[in-house]
Amino acid sequence: MTPAAMNEKIIETFKEENSKEGIRVFVAGGSRSGHDEIYAQEAYNLGKKIVKMDFKLDFGLSNSGIMGAVAKGVLDGWNKRQKKQEGEQEVPIQGITTSKYFALYQTDDELIKKMDIVVAKSLEERKRMLLRADFVVFTPGGVGTLDELAYDCVAMQDDMLPMKPFIIYNINGFFYHLLEYLKIMAYEGFAEPVPFIVVDDAEELEIAFRLLKYRYIKCTDGKEAYAHARQLVYELPYFIKMKNNYDMDADNIIMHMNRINEQGDDQDKQFLQNEIETAYLEKEIERMYDRLAYAGKDTGTVSEKLAKLKKRRKDMFK
After folding, report:
1. Most buried pick, 13, 15, 111, 220, via CB within 10 A?
2. What whole-number distance in Å separates Cα of residue 101 and Cα of residue 204?
3. Buried b or exposed e, range 218-239, using 16+ CB within 10 angstroms
């Protein structure tokens, strides 16, 4: 099958699978906003990107913190769109919760009232309902977010959940330690590498969304789905680079790649492959420098804590 035919199959399959209710994105994140305002701001931008891409939001229901910011971004983006279109349209938010958690919210809350609320019988059922979405975005959060990420990875690993793309929205380098830990687990032979799509800001997020929209395919075979996810991870830096350097959007880049693969000679194809590989390596090197910077901050923090502990011990014997 030619690259163009494969791309057409991907697009048509995705449209067919989602024809009834559109592409759904499950966003997992904190019910708190964190100390730095950048977290809530970027979460709000995530919500607006979801609307821009014609996606729909599934989340664990919240009107506060990171999750509340995502929902507000979706609603603001939707309201802006509504003003340009005639007729009422269904708000693209589904909040999935349990009766115990739902009782914590004021039902007359303006944000809550505009959502489609689904009450699950248990936390386990809630997790499974959320994972009906087409792909998952993990944003900064607490142990609940960490639990969701671990649960989803195990569910996919044990074939309880079809393989689907996972995006790590690495706002402010928040997931640095977790990404390193996941790599160590795979390196030491305790788990298979998970093909997370890591994005660092809203612009990279939109490119990832566009790439998923055009290239994502639901697969019944886990190995095939895993291969698709890995390919997305590998190619994303090339799309980011082309967008930043030449202001090309995802569909034009796909057309450019298809044209070379179908009509180009061996030299053209090799050049394209080298460009993709170079972009991938450059992004990995950039991230390694970022991780070194975070590691340096960690070292400084550890040194400071060590000095305080030594001082406390010394003061005990005065």
Report:
1. 111
2. 33
3. bbeeeeebbebbeebbebbbbb
Q: Which residue has the tokens 């005990």?
A: 316
Contact 189, 252 (CB under 8 A): no
- The edge-to-edge listing of strands for the beta sheet with 135-138 is 116-120, 93-98, 56-59, 24-28, 135-138, 166-169, 197-199
12-28 per-residue burial string, b: 16 or more CB within 10 A, e: under 16: eebeeebeeeebbbbbb
Q: Are 239 and 257 in contact (CB under 8 A)?
A: no
Burial 274-291 (b: 16+ CB within 10 A, else e): eebeebbeebeeebeeee
Query: What is d(CA 168, CA 24) in angstroms, rounded to the nearest whole number?
Result: 17
Determine the residue type at 51: V
Residue 35 DSSP SS3? coil
Phi and psi dihedrals of 199, rounded to 5?
-125, 145
Distance between CA 171 and CA 28 in Å, rounded?
14
Among 20, 81, 16, which Cα is nearest to 47's? 81
pLDDT per position as a tens digit, 248-293: 888 889 889 989 989 999 999 999 999 999 999 999 899 888 888 8
- Token pair belonging to 177: 């330690």
